[in-house]
Amino acid sequence: MAAYPAMSTKNAILKLDDKEIVLPIVVGTEQECGIDVRKLRDETGYITFDDGYANTGACESKVTFIDGEKGILRYRGYSIEELAEKSTFIETAYLLIYGELPTAAQLSTFKARILDNSQVHEGLRIALSGFPGNAHPMAVLSATLNTLGCYYPDLGTNERTHDLAKFDATAAVLMSKVRTLAALAHRSKEGEPPVYPKPGLDYCSNFLHLLFSQPNADYAVHPEVARALDLILLLHADHEQNCSTSTVRMVASGGANLFPSVSAGVCALWGPLHGGANQAVIEMLEEIHASGDDGSKFIADAKDKTKQVRLMGFGHRVYKNYDPRAKIIKAQCDKVLKVLGINDPLLAIAMRLEDAALNDPYFKQRNLYPNVDFYSGIILKAIGIPTEMFTVIFAIGRMPGWISHWKEIAETPKQKIHRPRQIYVGNTERAYSPIAQRS
Ligand code: ACO
Asked: Residues with catalytic annotation?
C-alpha cells in the first residue's frame, strides 16, 4: 500500500491581506481530504480557530474509519456489521490492537494471557473496598486503573522503547483487569463479598460471574445474555477520535505510559454527552414513564431552546445518519428481552420516542438519529446491570480502542506532544492592586 496520507496535486490557496498562501492538501486511504496547515503559523502568524475540533484532523490513524454521512463504521477495514455477526469482542480487540485478525494460535495465546491476568493484587482489591459506598463506579474505575500501574512498575515506566517492548503484557493486564476492577467496584458498592475469576469461563461469562455470583452460589450465565454483552462490548470497542480516545492520545503524546492514559480515558468517557449517555437514556426513559408522558411532552421540551433538555441517545458529532451500531443493538435488544421473557415498558417508550423524532422536522433538519446508547441501556437493564454501571461497561468495551490508539502514538517516530493553541479573550495587561484597595 502506498504511504498515506498522500499529497494531492491540488493545493488550497488562502488569501491574507494581499498575500497568497499555498496550503498542501493531504488525502487518506478513503479519499478523505484535509488542508495541511502545519506551517501556517510559522509563515503567517495566524492560527486556525475550530472550537470543539469539529473540522480538525489532529492525527493520522489506521485504526477506525467512519463515514458519518453514509453511516459507515469499520475497524481496521472490516465493517462493523460483519464483525458484529461473525466475530467476538476478544477477537475484535486483537484486530484493533494488532491491526490484523488473529490466527487460531495468536487468538489462543491472547486469550490465555487475558485469562492469566484476571485476578487483581489483594492489596488493590482491599484499597478498592475502602472507597465510600456512594462512590460512582466510573470514579473508582479511573482511580484503580491508574493505581494498577503501581503494581506493574516494569510495564509502565514512561520510557517509550521499554514500554513498547512490554506492550503485549500491559495490554493483556488492562484488557483483563478492567473487567475485574469494574466488577469489584460494583460489589464493593453493594457491600458484597468478592468472588474470584473462574478459569473455565469466556471473557463475558467471567465478567457476569464476577458481577453476580455469590461465594456460596454461582450465577448461571445464560449464553444469550453473555452473547448480548459481548456484542455491546464489540460495538463500543473503538470510534476513532472521540472525546475519550482523543484524551488517551493527548495524555500519551506527553509520553505517559498506558495505565494513566487509559485512566484519563475513563474520566473523559464519564460525561453525559459522551459515554455517560447510556445512563442518561435510562434515567430519561424512567422519568418519562414515571410522569405518565407518552413521550410527546419530552420531545416538545427537547426542541424548546429555553429548556435545558436533550433527547439523550440521539444525535452524534460525526453521524449525520443512523448510527450503524444503534441498528445492530436495537435488533439485539428485541432478542434479549424475548429470551429473558421481559416486557419492559421503557422499550415501548424508546420506540415511540424514536418514531416521533424521526418524523419530526426539528430532528430531521438537524440530522439527529439514535446513537449507540439509545438502546444499549435497555439490554444492560434486562441483564440486571445497575444503571450506574452502564458507562463502566462502555469503558470495558472501549479499552482495546484506547490501547490501540496509545500504541499508535507510542510507535509514531518523532511523535509531537499535543498542544493546541487558543484565541485569548481575557483581560489585557493590568497592574496588581493591593487587597485593601479592591472593592
Ligand atoms: N436533543 C435535542 N436537540 C439536539 C440533540 C438532542 N439529543 N442533539 C443535538 N441537538 C441540537 C442542538 O440543540 C443544536 O440545535 P441548534 O442548531 O438549533 O442550536 C443542533 O442539534 C446541533 O447540536 P450540537 O450540540 O451543536 O451538536 P454536537 O455535534 O456538538 O453534539 C452530541 C453531539 C453531544 C452527541 C449531541 O447530539 C447530544 O448532546 N446528544 C445527546 C447526548 C448523547 O446521546 N451523547 C452520546 C453520543 S454517542 C457517544 O459518545 C457514545
From this structure: 316, 373
